């Protein structure tokens, strides 16, 4: 029996924290960042083989020029494989759109679930 694999980024407005003053612009920026990260999210083969599932929260800081200046694990998943993948995802995106008003940080919950 084969399992369908599901990797998703949950970017609910209440679940993602953003630190920029212009709310409307920052909310759009936040959604864009979440979509870019989600597009690069895959289920690591090692995690699949071990049956690892979980949700990771990463804090991503983007500079005024759109470059990633920091990625940190805010809440681990319980799987070192998934945690490492979450920390590597922003680098797979490359540059992000420049946040309005300078550098900004966003906390992204990333979920991996075997289906």
From TrEMBL:
Signal peptide positions (record): 1-24
Main subcellular location: membrane
Record flagged with keyword Phosphoprotein: no
Protein name: Protein TonB
Gene Ontology biological-process entries: protein transport; siderophore transport; transmembrane transport
Matching SUPFAM superfamilies: TolA/TonB C-terminal domain
Family: Belongs to the TonB family.
Protein keywords: Cell inner membrane, Cell membrane, Membrane, Protein transport, Signal, Signal-anchor, Transmembrane, Transmembrane helix, Transport
Entry GO MF terms: energy transducer activity
Job description of the protein: Interacts with outer membrane receptor proteins that carry out high-affinity binding and energy dependent uptake into the periplasmic space of specific substrates. It could act to transduce energy from the cytoplasmic membrane to specific energy-requiring processes in the outer membrane, resulting in the release into the periplasm of ligands bound by these outer membrane proteins.
Location of the protein in the cell: Cell inner membrane
TonB C-terminal domain location: 28-115
A single Gene Ontology CC term: plasma membrane protein complex
Record bears the keyword Cell inner membrane: yes
Membrane topology designation: Single-pass membrane protein
């Amino acid at each position: 029996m084969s399992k369908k694999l599901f990797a998703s980024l949950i970017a609910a407005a209440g679940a993602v924290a953003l630190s920029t003053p212009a709310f409307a612009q920052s909310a759009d920026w936040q959604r864009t960042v979440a979509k870019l990260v989600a597009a690069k999210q895959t289920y690591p083969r090692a995690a699949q083989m071990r049956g690892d599932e979980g949700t990771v929260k990463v804090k991503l800081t983007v500079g005024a020029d759109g470059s990633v200046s920091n990625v940190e694990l805010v809440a681990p998943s319980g799987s070192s494989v998934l945690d490492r993948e979450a920390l590597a995802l922003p680098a797979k995106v490359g540059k992000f759109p420049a946040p309005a008003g300078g550098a900004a940080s966003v906390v992204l919950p990333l979920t991996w679930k075997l289906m």
